[in-house]
Every structure is written in C-alpha cells, then in structure tokens.
Write a structure and sequence with these properties.
binds zinc ion, alpha+beta, 7 strands, three-stranded antiparallel sheet, two-stranded antiparallel sheet, 31% helix, 2 domains
Length: 148
C-alpha cells in the first residue's frame, strides 16, 4: 500500500462567512484558522478586498472565493496553474490579467500571467483545446471587480 503524498490544497468551506458581514484581516484569519501569509496568498489568488484602511472583506466575496477554489480542486484545473519563479508559488490563469501569444506551432499557445507579488512573468504552454477551456472558465468566473 502506498500512500501517495497528498498535495495540500487548503480548501475551506464556501459557507463559513456570513454573506452580509464585513470582515477585517484578523477576523478572516480567525474564521478560517489561517496564517497572515495564507491570507496574502488568497488575495494574490483573487480574493476580493475592499480598499479601505484597514482593509475589509465581504462575507459574500470570501464564500465566492472558496467556492471557486473548491470547484477548481474538483476539476483537472492543475493545467491552469503556472509555477512562478518570482514568488515560488503557483498562480491560477483563471484570475488576474493574462496574455496569450502564439507558441512554436499553430496548435500551441503561451499563456502568461504577471506575478502579483514580484511582477515576474509566469508562462505556461497550452494546446488550443485547453486555451478554449481556459477562456470559457474565465468568462464564467466572476471578476474581482464588483461595482458597488
Ligand atoms: Zn508569483
């Protein structure tokens, strides 16, 4: 029997936060029992922050963020993660700004994302089918800008 090393995903419930409540950073850290670094990573991964001083998080945004992550974990979305040499983490191509450029052949595309922390470019090559799936997923993923 071999116990394959499980990748730590740090998935959280998407119902933990109260939808209409505002949370401070400390509240979020307490609610999910996470470190400050993890919270920073979540923000880098697309968790919406209300630009206030001190910064605040909407319960609905927290739940939506975790819902997206859980959904992503259940699908083979590893193909849409890029390893970043800047910060040594992975970034999702489903979040943030990406740019797409042609690869070596007309069936391969290079998708790059800028590291939110270091500004380094993280690249990944995908085939046209993967690029199509990526673009559909990005359309159905709510953006981080919510006007209100
Ligand atoms: Zn990075």
């Amino acid at each position: 029997m071999t116990a394959a090393p499980k990748k730590r995903r740090n998935l959280q419930s998407d119902r933990k936060a109260r939808l209409h409540q505002l949370y401070s950073s400390d509240d979020v850290i307490k609610l999910y029992d996470i470190s400050r670094n993890t919270l920073t990573n979540w923000i880098a991964d697309g968790l919406t922050v209300i630009d206030a001083e001190p910064r605040l998080f909407r319960g609905s945004d927290l739940n939506a963020f975790h819902g997206r992550r859980r959904k992503a974990a259940g699908k083979p979305l590893g193909q849409f993660l890029v390893s970043c040499f800047g910060c040594k983490r992975s970034h999702s191509l489903l979040e943030g700004d990406i740019s797409i450029s042609p690869g070596r052949t007309d069936r391969v595309f290079r998708v790059s994302r800028t590291c939110p922390d270091t500004g380094a470019r993280a690249n990944r090559f995908v085939c046209s089918e993967e690029l199509g799936a990526l673009q559909r997923l990005r359309e159905t993923t709510p953006g981080s800008e919510t006007p209100d």
